[in-house]
């Protein structure tokens, strides 16, 4: 009975909207650039041989599926 996931990164969480990685010290969702940079770093670790452009494109595509970011101006109208 625990299928809550972070609305920013998709990580399983106990409750609430966001995991500890996605919020600042006050519990507010981090801004897009902070989150994007962190997730690009995660993705780059998973795919160490992938070019930076591909890693960033994959991260953008992933964030576009997240409730917290899918309508974000940095993801919408970027085509
Ligand atoms: Zn998260």
For the sheet with most strands, the description reads: none
Bound small molecules, deduplicated: zinc ion
Tell me the strand percentage band.
Answer: under 5%
The averaged pLDDT comes out at: 93
Throw out a few tags for this protein.
single chain; mainly alpha; binds zinc ion
List the SSEs and their pairings.
Layout: H1 32-46, H2 52-63
Bound molecules: zinc ion (ZN).
Residues 6, 8-9, 11, 18-19, 21-22 line the site of zinc ion.
Task: Explain this structure.
This protein is an all-alpha fold and 79 residues long. The protein is built from two helices and no strands. It has helices at 32-46, 52-63. α1 packs across α2. The longest helix is centred in the middle third of the chain and has 15 residues, at 32-46. It is globular and about 35 Å long. The mean pLDDT is 93. Bound molecules: zinc ion.
Compose a concise summary of this entry.
By secondary structure, this protein is mostly helical.
């Amino acid at each position: 009975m625990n299928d809550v996931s972070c609305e920013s990164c998709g990580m399983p969480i106990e409750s609430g909207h966001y995991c500890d990685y996605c919020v600042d010290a006050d519990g507010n969702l981090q801004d897009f650039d902070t989150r994007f940079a962190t997730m690009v770093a995660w993705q780059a670790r998973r795919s160490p041989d992938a070019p930076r452009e591909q890693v960033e494109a994959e991260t953008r595509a992933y964030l576009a599926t997240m409730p917290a970011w899918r309508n974000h101006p940095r993801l919408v109208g970027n085509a």
